[in-house]
Amino acid sequence: MKITQQEADSNLLPDDSRRKFLGATAMVTLAGAGMAVGLAGCKQDDASKPGHAASAGGDASRAVAPGEYEIHPGKLDSYYIFSSAGHNGEMRIYGLPSGRTLKRIPIFNMDPMVGWGITNESKKIIGTNADGSLKYTTGDTHHVHGSYKDGTYDGKYLWTNDKLNCRIARVRMDYMECDKITDIPNVQGFHGIFPDKRDPVDPAINYTTRVFCGAEFHIPQANDGRDLDDPSKWFCLFTCVDAESMEVRWQVKLDGNMELLATSYDGKLAAATQYNTEGGVTLAEMMSAERDACVFLNIERIEAAIEAGKSFTIGDSKVPVLDGTKAANKDPKTALTYYVPVPKNPHGVNISPDGKYFVCSGKLSPTATVIATELVHKWFAGELKDERESVVAEPEIGLGPLHTAFDGKGNAYTSLFLDSQIVKWNVDAAIAHFNGDKSAKPVVDRIDVHYQPGHTYSSMGETKEADGMFLNAGNKFSKDRFLPVGPLHVETEQLIDIKSDKMRLIHDHTAYPEPHDAIIVRADVVKTKQIYNMDDFPNAVKSFGDSRVERNGKKVNVYMTSVAPVYSLEEIRVKLGDEVTLTLTNHDKVEDLAHGCGIEKYNINFIVNPQETHSVTFRADKAGVFWIYCTHFCHALHLEMRTRFIVEK
Ligand code: CUA
Ligand code: CA
Q1: Is 482 helix (H, G, I), strand (E, B) or coil?
Q2: Residues ≥6 apart with Cβ < 8 Å to 612
Q3: Mind listing the pLDDT tens digit for each residue in 600-615?
Q4: Strand 391-393, strand 368-372: pairing
Q5: Which of 267, 290, 298, 287 is nearest to 202 (CA)?
Q6: What is the DSSP code (8-state) at residue 639?
Q7: Ligand 2 center to residue 280 CA distance, Å?
Q8: Are 273 and 360 in contact (CB under 8 A)?
């Protein structure tokens, strides 16, 4: 369906109230797309009226005291935020509460600062074509989640998805660098990702060993040119990746398109919210059913079925696939999956820190659906009659609920995209209200954010150690919050104090578009290395004496070391047309004493950290003298740190 000019023009309403403006735009867009669902039908209680919500600017009780959360120069933050970066393809680290940017970790993108996508080592991780060029140079990270031990972060790994080229990446938290990337076969729109928290069977494995990946777009299987015009044959796969080897273990065919994922604390369940259970290919078709689903996967049964050889394969992939569709899983006692009906086109699913409830955010419905973990287990035991029986609450919380975070004190915090608010609601009160107690008021508080929040997440909120200190709202718009920088603005991350009853805005910090999800991790969980270990690099040039230029036909190997402010070779001489591999080991041992290696006119640029080795391979296709120089400030004689790369005709 095409958007009309009139609808497009309505985006230009001369209304200086940004909040109204953005709300109206979103409403018009939804209505224009034939989505006149019950958006206006939200019966709001007192605390829920948008006019009653307050931002820091308008209500003194919403402002933190001056300096209350200030991190003075030289003082350290108490939390890390590990954030996705959207279609920038990287992962980012911020400090909290300051909001300082600490690091950008290149993953699916290229980064000349460190040489990601330039060095042989990073190219090997990203993946190359037969000619050595990168297989992909773009990516789209949406979610970051950490590895668990005993129900909380162990500080070992972070994982993120690439929705664009359907890869999963792992970041080692000791070096804060990507060490593995895996292609997921037979999926498109790989969106939701979540590690398990313990093994479903073995109690000794009380840590992450699997990472689950949900696919959003259904496609022909195999997608090799068959069934191009028969969407009834298309489907999505839910994928399990081994946390250590990063190999794909198994996949499950599911109905619907998967949005977000969550895992239970007992290791037995993975959940995925689903829109388009209709299997439609147009917006109208994807919106036709009144309800979609939150699907639960029984991990123990799935792995037993794989073990029993009940799987099939798709196309060239050797990954075993099981049928998890509703039609193939009618008997709960043997079912691999359980589809809980929830209001149509839901968005996020998040589990409470006590492990008791999965909360699905309504998106088009002004509600959150609370599903009890215990009752999901009862369904799989055949003890429930109705598919909706595991739903224990469905409070009305506001317009456009997308994601829910928790404070560990029984409260949930849901981002409201259309209302541009975070709403705080009490889970027990919601359950009491659902059970008929009309005096129970689920909504406790709400605060305006600026504007259009997507993900919201709390400090340690995805662990049993949720501490109810901070909540961050990742907002899609930042109009009027920062100096304008042209038509495209930065985005805002707004940090909110959730220690007391009323939420208070601490500050805005900027984020280059476009972050999606993040986790907030206590600083003491993270233990990083200070320097690299030379022995971890098989190609390390271990001493200055090993520095040399070695020729083998047209292939030339250059072995070089660095110590501030010199490279070990004063001159490198090759012949036009040679294939040159330059290996550089940094022998400095001081933390942060990195050297760069840029080769003039050869488009090569990377760094070596203390005791680290990197190599590059390229064709010497230009004759002449080309200076190799240190690009990373290292010494008073940094500018003099250079060597001659001489290419003879
Ligand atoms: Cu070495 Cu700058
Ligand atoms: Ca739908």
Answers
A1: coil
A2: 532, 534, 537, 585, 586
A3: 999 999 999 999 999 9
A4: antiparallel
A5: 267
A6: G
A7: 8
A8: yes
